[in-house]
């Protein structure tokens, strides 16, 4: 992926990368069986998702390209607090977080490629529930098999995503849209533009695997907005 800069969002922090929570059995595997999916992976996704996908080549976003969240009433924003656990009921996905920064080339570091049940939060952007677009990345597969965001493309508008934060607040996001973009025409502005509301972007690889480039051809992006919050 290209050399990129960080997306705009909440105040920058730079704590050490840590993984939170204990790993639990892969309940999303049950959902895969229920949905009748048979996954035969023949590749490994080791390239990181970047906060700014090929910005120079991306076409300018138009109002018609925007996800529908702008017209949906959103919950009030929350103070900054780092995420510790992700829960997607529709996919039976439950995973801890690791913090991600940028590498020397300006690309977002990827979660560990040998951990199938781990998601990464871009720590220098907005925190989930904070004003702005919080960026969460995960692998579709790893060196050991299918990974946490394998079925991300199956989410639908209205699906919910719960993120438990360090302050004990569970932020519930409602999915507005799920879109697939070619990596060489990634709409940087549409995905990473700053927002006045608390929004969420879940990002993984998609499309076909290009063996020559050793990378997937597309990115799957889930657009969501903060629907509600509660104290645990």
Order of strands across the main sheet: 1-2-3-4-9-10-8-7
User: What percentage of the residues does DSSP assign to strands (E)?
Assistant: 25-35%
- Can you give the helix content as a percent range? under 10%
Number of strands: 10
Which sequence of SSEs, written as H and E, runs from N to C?
HEEEEEEEEHEE
CATH fold-level topology: Sortase, Chain: A
Distance from first to last alpha carbon: 39 Å
Based on secondary structure, the structural category is mainly beta
CATH superfamily: Sortase
* The CATH class: Mainly Beta
As an assembly, this protein is: single chain
- Total count of domains: 1
Treating each run of at least 4 consecutive H or I residues as one helix, how many helices?
A: 2
CATH architecture: Beta Barrel
Mean pLDDT: 76
* Main sheet specs: 8 strands, mixed, barrel
- The general outline is globular
Write the layout of secondary structure elements.
Blueprint: H1 28-34, E1 83-88, E2 93-100, E3 119-122, E4 132-137, E5 141-142, E6 145-146, E7 160-165, E8 169-182, H2 188-192, E9 198-210, E10 215-231
Parallel strand pairs: 2-3, 4-9
Antiparallel strand pairs: 1-2, 1-7, 3-4, 5-6, 7-8, 8-10, 9-10
